[in-house]
Amino acid sequence: MATTSYSGIGRYNYKLLPLSLSSITRCPCHSSPSKALVPARPRVVKLNFVFDDRKSVLRLGRDGGLARRRVITAVARVEPEQLGELGKENANQEVNKGDKLSENEDLLSEHQQKASQLRKRIVFGLGIGISVGGVVLAGGWIFTAFMAAAVFVGAREYFDLVRSHGITAGMTPPPRYVSRVCSIICAVMPIITLYFGQIDISVTFAAFVVAMALLLQRGNPRFAQLSSTMFGLFYCGYLPSFWVKLRCGLAAPALNTRIGASWPILLGGQAHWTIGLVACLISISSIIAADTYAFLGGKTFGRTPLTSISPKKTWEGTITGLGGCVATSIILSKIFCWPTSLISAIAFGVLNFFGSVFGDLTESMIKRDAGVKDSGSLIPGHGGILDRVDSYIFTGALAYSFVKYFLPLYGV
Known about the structure:
Strand order of the largest sheet: 1-4
Order of helices and strands: EEHEEHHHHHHHHHHEEHHHH
Radius of gyration: 33 Å
Shape: globular
Largest sheet: 2 strands, antiparallel
Mean pLDDT: 78
Helix content: 55-70%
Number of helices: 15
Structural class: mainly alpha
Number of strands: 6
Distance between the termini: 92 Å
């Protein structure tokens, strides 16, 4: 009967040398036994060979996981034609054990990576939330400067996506100098909105200048260059500027709550607690609630895909997110005493939800065509700026239109 031999090794590194079955199964009484393993370093180490014709056993140190697999696999595969049926079966068992060990180690490593990624998302998410909350409360030029910086980075990420290999395979991207100029124009739009109140003329003039630069460039101008650039001005500059109009433009005091009536003088006094501030707080909180409830609902109940643009989104998660968004809008409306009616609070929540969903899907469509997972890597665990603010891009314009025109018009 063939005998399979295995070696018990401590915490040392060894070079595996070619050996035959006869050399590793040779009886110790022979005069010149062959060496199976040689230390990688010049150390004197005792090697204990274990012979067992019924059960294959290999004992290694705690740190010898990788060595264990290699030794088992190498020894088990040495001259299999000489092992016999029982030897082959034992060798296959040991190989399978090595494969299972490798799978377990891979699963453990993957679990650790997911846990580390989750911790990063939570830590940086809380930091971003606190920072944004302070900026929204500050308002004025602090809020506008923050918006301008975010818009600039988001515009750069957008034009990088437009120039990515996935999109350029089917279209001609705008020249690099045009992308940079458009990013600067987008960053200036929130500042113009703050100081002039309107941005329509400025956006029209900027779009005209950019269009002329594209049409008069050397070579062969393409419509794809014009369309992607015009959409970039609209998506990255014009739409985010509505948040400045919402926060800083709606300056009517909202003193129906104890918070507004007792707002500290050091933070601006009662005049600082405005309709625009309350609307921003409700809208941002509703969007956060929509994303959170949609994620939890999709993980728990998600079965039916919502759209092929974003396969991970489900109808069950979307409905759960809608409920969380509307509930948050109603609760905050009772706390802030604005809007005054239940119908208005529900409508505001629904509007915020649809704005966030379609903003998210729009950015997902751009990333899918670009062939990337994240728009950037600026925020650890979250991706780029566009990955974090995609739900807010359309929502600012919808919220401003609701507060500015819908509420006064219908009086609800």
